[in-house]
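agent: user wants the structure for Sodium/hydrogen exchanger from Balaenoptera musculus. delegating to structure tool.
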Amino acid sequence: MLRAALPLLGLPLAGAGATEEPTQEPGSPGEPPPGLALFRWQWHEVEAPYLVALWILVASLAKIVFHLSRKVTSLVPESCLLILLGLVLGGIVLAVAKKAEYQLEPGTFFLFLLPPIVLDSGYFMPSRLFFDNLGAILTYAVVGTLWNAFTTGAALWGLQQAGLVAPRVQAGLLDFLLFGSLISAVDPVAVLAVFEEVHVNETLFIIVFGESLLNDAVTVVLYKVCNSFVEMGSANVQATDYLKGVASLFVVSLGGAAVGLVFAFLLALTTRFTKRVRIIEPLLVFLLAYAAYLTAEMASLSAILAVTMCGLGCKKYVEANISHKSRTAVKYTMKTLASCAETIIFMLLGISAVDSSKWAWDSGLVLGTLFFILFFRALGVVLQTWVLNQFRLVPLDKIDQVVMSYGGLRGAVAFALVILLDRTKIPAKDYFVATTIVVVFFTVIVQGLTIKPLVKWLKVKRSEHHKPTLNQELHEHTFDHILAAVEDVVGHHGYHYWRDRWEQFDKKYLSQLLMRRSAYRIRDQIWDVYYRLNIRDAISFVDQGGHVLSSTGLTLPSMPSRNSVAETSVTNLLRESGSGACLDLQVIDTVRSGRDREDAVMHHLLCGGLYKPRYRYKASCSRHFISEDAQERQDKEVFQQNMKRRLESFKSTKHNICFTKSKPRPRKAGRKKKDGMANTEATNGKPPRDLGFQDTAAVILTVESEEEEDSDSSETEKEDDEGIIFVARATSEVLQEGKVSGE
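agent: tool returned. relaying tokens verbatim.
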């Protein structure tokens, strides 16, 4: 199997070219049998995997060396350094072996190196930003690619007719259109490698990178159609062939997207049932995504579009179903594979350029191609942006258009496609190969080196590397609902209307089908943010030297005894222990930055405004959704809470910490326990206290448990996971407990 895969990896077969000599049987008459060998060199048995591992090791060591000097990597993109390293290694191999080896083979690139990069890009692509700019991305990917391909090919043919291209370049109009189709598409690998180091704003990056991913369908269709026309001959092309070419554009693009969505559905559905076999969750993600790529490639559809839609469509449900450890494994494994593949691609591009037997030089063709791809790219961006700005709420200014025009990079996709051309059908293949290599090196090295100074000189808005605050997220969701309601009222079914409809459909059908019940229950966003803020406060408290408290006192031996805790202020204890953490989540004068202060304010608002139902009148009622008949009770209780908080705002509070056990128990037992507590208070001479939200809300630091509740279980439910709970209690209650316990 390794020997069959060796040519695909661009590696020479073991002993290739050598004549097979007849071997003598060890038991032949006249010769004694060989003795036991203590050492035997078997290079040919491990040649293929050893060379693959060696190339990956060389690429990894090269990345380490590059990043030893931060000044070099800040000025020169890593892709440029890898191409230069490939040129050096290719020259060394050529000087030693007297022939070029280890080339970038199209099969290796399309089947092994490209899928991890595209999967990483699609899986971690910001879906909201992508769909917000989907119209612009499709315009540049479809219309822009068609414009660049036809104008570049026709201009090169006109250049030949004008006599500026050497007569030895034997190519007709269809040949130049074929070359224009493969040289005009923006390469996703090159764009990802260069733009991630430039750090332009998110909108500009998603438009250029989204274009490079979605234009694959147009590139595949144009390449196959033009290649078929060249093989048929221009005289044999009929009108129906042009119609089939147009129809194939929709078949390849929509078919590739459909294949990706089908495998995304299967992946999400499969991970719903893996709670008892967590170890195979990362394997399923990679296997089904790669199966989507191979299926689309097998059906002659857009494989890049298939794996992009698979990653984009499955992430939401897969991330909710798999465990935290599996999410970490998927993330780092995917990033590692993508980084290794990208490194090997650029190195092999440099090595492949050394083999002069595969290309022939023509200055007119090379210079004309460089000029036309830059000129028609800029002209197409300007014309398309003018049309798009008539409909965009936030238009793309001239500076953005300059960066988009200059960021149309070409890469390994164009090189692999030009290598696949048949020299017998296209006599000018060698000239096309040389021109493609020059274009790839120019766009990656020259434009890659100058795009960062250009961005700084034009003062392009850079990306902001921080997550939006809670206030921003709440206002963003509020504006989304308002705009959707406005469109619904005026009868205009626009983008916000359809997005709101999709979210409702997803919440009602898809999420319940593709997510486990336990994962679907905890997807309330506001409670999730509130939960994460509590975790951050708890971690901050522990990191700053805080000690663990319990409901009756402090448990660590370095702190005062339990009997003296009830009469000691928690604030004084924290001050004595040197901890700067504040357990009172409503106190906001101890935060250190404006962002923390804003989050603390929103934390206070959520703590006071969020409503959690206390009673369940129906056994089938969900604790995360409030029925319509409880709306009046909710409004009344929120009003009472606000009034009570205002009246008692001058009182100081204390916080204790208690541990809870994560053990499932029947609902009836929980109710009996509550009833028992109420009866105990009644027997002590105290009337049952009406617990409000402030008394029941807790700050929980959850420890992930592998045991989850079964989806088909309706009689039992689990309590919160084991963790730290911060409970706000009045001073009088703590003092009263201390007196009772002392008695």
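agent: one observation worth passing along. The longest helix spans residues 239-271.
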